[in-house]
Amino acid sequence: MHTEGKTQKEISERIGCSQSAVSRHLSGKSVGRKKCGKKRCTTRRGDRTLRKIVEKDRFQTLGDLRKQWTESGVETSRATVHRRVLLNQKQRQKRLTWATEKQHWTVAQWSKVLFSDESKFCMSFGNQGARVWRKTGEKEMPKCLKSSVKYPQSVMVWGAMSAAGVGPLCFIKGRVNAASYQEILEHFMLPSAEKLYGDEDFVFQHDLAPAHSAKTTGKWFTDHGITVLNWPANSPDLNPIENLWDIVKRKLRDARPNTLDELKAAIEASWASITPQQCHRLIASMPRRIEAVISAKGFPTKY
């Protein structure tokens, strides 16, 4: 196109683009422009090095992993190490998609969600055991297993919370399968919903554990007319009840129970001391959690 003698405005109107784009083109600044967005702080080769470090010893602390990665020539933060280890690309994309879909949910909408989770409580609170870095399907690999003594004893607990407070706890006996989980829903989730919502509608949240996602469990929810919130895998940072478990465990360190019965009593007392105000503040953090996941492009967040 002949442009001699024409102004940038005339050229932009004729070809249908902005004057700034025309200006960049004519000045040559549009060639080789830098990409927008945050620069990736590690290379693919560096990520492969981290995976090899993790595979040598699955029980290293985050600080140990970072130290070894730094010694290999990759200078980065603990947060970056955490992001690179825990989630694969598919999981990160699902988290990002989910967060984008929920980006405009209000606190009032999140207040309609009954959040639930299971958590393990041990008799010894000074040492909760070493963390193992593994992916799905690696649970039984010899490198991911570490010998330990039979004690301290522990209990598994199911609980639920909303912006209005907490529901009754369930102490779980044995392994949870679809049938036993539905018993928990019948005898503890429904009373929780009755206590926190009365006759109002609510949406139930749980993670993607096999017992939760079983077909018979799905039928249970359908038969009871309960809507279940779709949930991304490996996303404890999105569930505010995780913060309540942390509160209870901190209190138990001071209580220091000596028997299983004392442990259960201490858990129930700590859980009962959680106020509706605490719960409401956690639910009010949901929009910020969503934004954090979007900003992190699906990687784990500070929550």
TrEMBL record:
In terms of InterPro entries, this protein maps to: Cro/C1-type_HTH (IPR001387), RNaseH_sf (IPR036397), Tc1-like_DDE_dom (IPR038717), Transposase_5 (IPR052338)
Q: Which CDD domains does the entry link to?
A: HTH_XRE (cd00093)
The Tc1-like transposase DDE domain extends over 113-264
Q: Where are the transmembrane segments?
A: none
Highest rank taxon of the organism: Eukaryota
A GO molecular function for this record?
nucleic acid binding
> What is the name of this protein?
Tc1-like transposase DDE domain-containing protein
This chain's source organism reads Cyprinus carpio
Organism lineage reads as:
Eukaryota, Metazoa, Chordata, Craniata, Vertebrata
